[in-house]
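We modelled the chain as a single entity of 372 amino acids. Its sequence is:
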Amino acid sequence: MKKWSLFGVVFLVLCMAGCADEQADHVKNNGLVNSEIASNSDSVQISDSTALPSDTKINEKLDDNLSVEAEFQMPEEELFTWSSKLKQFDYDKIQSILWPDASSKEITTDEFGMRHYKKASLGVDKGSLIYTADDEINYIDTLCYYAKEKNIIPEKNLQFETRDEAAEEAETLLSKLDIGCELGEPYIIALNSGDLRKVQKEIMNDIDYKDVLSAKNLGNNDFENDIELYRLEYSFVIDRMPVFGYDDPTVQYTGDRPLLAQNMRAVVTLSKSGIQRVDLQGVLDVLTQNPDKADIIDYEGIKKALDKKFGDVILSDKYKVIRIWMEYFPLIESGSFEQVSVIPVWCLDFEINGEINNYTLRFNACSGEEIS
């Protein structure tokens, strides 16, 4: 098989990722008008004095071209803010976990700082770790990613171990890395050689992928008949609250800050031969809880945040909030590339002119300040 470099994988993933649509241009206006009562009998009448129940369906017009039609739920438990930093992995510790039988003479370091042992390679950086058992597994991971995206492989157990056993093995490994958040439930995909051939055929018929793979002389590979592997993808949680992850909507970058946050994700690929691939992105070191509980704004606070965002503009398109939820957001502190404040944020998904446009706003759930 032709070599599939780490940088090639990154390039392919970037090619596959969708880009968020830009917000429509605005001009000055006099602000939001008073709320109008929705006609939907299942919805709550909104006024400035209304005390909303914790779980409410909202149907409200805020302005001629701005409305809310979404479920709203206040968190049931006390929340806190946290301090941390992007995890800086210790090379020696990681290689002792992954290569317990390797001697120091057998491990080499290349010009990029990556370490190699036989066919395997290991690279670490702030918040990230990438381990591959060989070059082929990077290509296989691309097929796994595609199979997940298109949902074309049915759920099943493999012969060498069950899904539950694979999850236990992956979580045992990840527990040794001292990551500062709890693991969420994994998305598990199980593939054998027949599945890989099927996915490869599908991906080569997809114009969005075919040209990239063909340019690298990939896409027509055969696979040994006894290949079986699990790919387990984890998001993270803090006190049962999800943390900003790879399946969450794109951050709308504002201002001059180069990076607001990194999506948190852990991917582990296992076969009967052991650990085949580990990919950690945006992971944090041990969290320090700030002493005071977070005072969370309610729906009225969200309306004030929307007023501040849109109140002085005329919207030429129709914006409708169709989803409201809360998550923890690892906000990289201004002027730093590694210090992180982990804060609860309200996330709002919008339709624009009746269409999903990958436009999501996030507001600090304590202050109402726009995050992105």
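As a brief sanity check on the tokenised model: Residues 85 and 339 are 4 Å apart (CA to CA). The radius of gyration is 23 Å.
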